[in-house]
Amino acid sequence: MRKRKPKLRMIIPDPRYNDPMVTQFVNNLMWEGKKSTALTVFYDALDMVAGRTNQDEHALWKKALSNVMPQVEVRSRRIGGATFQIPTEIRAKRKVSIGMKWLIKYSRQRSGKGMAERLASEIIAASKGEGSAVKKKEDTHRMAESNRAFAHFKV
Predict the structure, then answer these.
(1) Rounded to an integer, what distance in angstroms lies between the CA atom of residue 46 and that of residue 115?
(2) Which of 5, 64, 72, 86 is the Cys-Cys partner for 126 at CB 3.0 to 4.6 Å?
(3) In the Cβ-directed half-sphere of 152, how many Cα atoms lie within 13 Å?
(4) Position 8 in a domain
């Protein structure tokens, strides 16, 4: 167990949208320390989103992220020789982090030419409430709902 909480690092906002959440997303998207490449991929994806939907791409990305963020998750807890899946609420920062990671993970698994195109497709799908990342969120919520009987075992 930790003795004290770690200091929160300040995330510098990105140059185009002046939003620290964009920087956090790009940091998760980054591969092998190539931040400028990740930034280019993200901006290209948002340009594609703007071209395909004729809407504000930043607002659409935020909507997609909010559609992907889970509210509850299940955690394994061993009680008396049996392992139970206990549904627990997720704190705000973890929600955002999980949502970003799912959006990136499922856009990487998508078919398409180039990461920017795949990311754009996943963002558009997630903003409509479709796509693999939204399905993952719904599956997580369904699992938490089915294990609601064990909620009294909370830590």
Answers:
(1) 12
(2) 64
(3) 1
(4) no
Closest CA to 48 of 100, 128, 124: 124
Mean pLDDT by 10 residues, the chain (155 residues): 88 93 95 94 94 93 94 90 90 94 94 92 93 94 87 74
Q: One-letter amino acid identity for 113?
A: K
Domain assignment present for 9: no
Instruction: Give me the pLDDT at residue 125, please.
Output: 94
**What is the rounded distance in angstroms from the CA atom of residue 24 to the CA atom of residue 26?**
5
Residue 126 maps to which CATH number? Answer: 1.10.455.10
Q: What is the spatial distance between Cα 47 and Cα 116, in angstroms, rounded to a whole number?
A: 9
Q: What share of the chain is helix, strand, coil (3-state, %, to 5)?
A: 60, 10, 30
Task: Report residue 28 as tokens.
Answer: 């998760």
User: Can you read off the two tokens belonging to residue 72?
Assistant: 């509850």
pTM over 0.85: yes
